[in-house]
């Protein structure tokens, strides 16, 4: 049986297996950070909830609560990265995360 490489944002990292069984707690009430827990948190931060890698414009409109024209305006200005597959415009999950980070940085400057 061959092991297939894991795709980015396809689910929790393959190496994620908790060293602490469910329900096991330390004296302080929480378990110590395990390296794979940090990987899991990073994965959750970088990938939208459904785990897809590419989104159509209509999906991004729903995710970001923005109109189609605003999405395309952000793509044209370079603030939201996109790719084309044939005639379809697709937005990578990482581009959505980067765009949200950009918006948060701009909000802090105000």
Order of helices and strands: HEHHEEH
Helix content: 40-55%
Which structural category fits the helices and strands? mainly alpha
Q: On the 0-100 scale, what is the average pLDDT? A: 76
Task: List segments where confidence is low: pLDDT < 50 over at least 5 consecutive residues.
Answer: 2-8, 10-18
How many DSSP-defined strands?
A: 3
Q: Explain this structure to me?
A:
- Helix content is 43%, strand content 10%.
- The radius of gyration is 18 Å and the shape is globular.
- The N terminus is likely disordered.
Topology summary:
Elements: H1 35-46, E1 54-56, H2 57-64, H3 68-77, E2 83-85, E3 88-92, H4 93-109
Antiparallel strand pairs: 1-3, 2-3
Give the tags.
4 helices; single chain; disordered N terminus; 3-stranded antiparallel sheet; mainly alpha; 110 residues
């Amino acid at each position: 049986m061959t092991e297939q490489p894991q795709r980015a944002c396809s689910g929790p990292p393959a190496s994620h297996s908790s060293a602490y069984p469910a329900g096991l707690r330390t004296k302080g009430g929480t378990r110590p950070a395990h390296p794979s827990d940090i990987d899991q948190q990073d994965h959750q931060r970088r990938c939208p909830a459904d785990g897809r890698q590419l989104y159509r414009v209509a999906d991004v409109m729903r995710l970001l609560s923005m109109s189609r024209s605003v999405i395309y305006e952000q793509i044209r200005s370079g603030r939201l990265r996109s790719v084309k597959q044939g005639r379809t415009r697709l937005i990578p999950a990482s581009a959505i995360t980067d765009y949200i980070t950009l918006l948060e940085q701009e909000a802090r400057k105000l």
